[in-house]
Amino acid sequence: MTIKYSQVSIGLSNPKSPENVGSVLRAAGNYRVNSVLYTGQRYERALKLNPDIPNVSRKVSENVSLTSVESLVEDVPDDLKIICVEFAMDAISLPQFQHPEKACYIFGPEDGNISQDIIDSADAVVYVPTVGSMNLAASVNVVLDDRLAKLTKDIGDNELIRQNRDTNNNLKVRK
Question: How far is Cα 12 from Cα 37, in angstroms, rounded to an integer?
Answer without folding.
Answer: 6
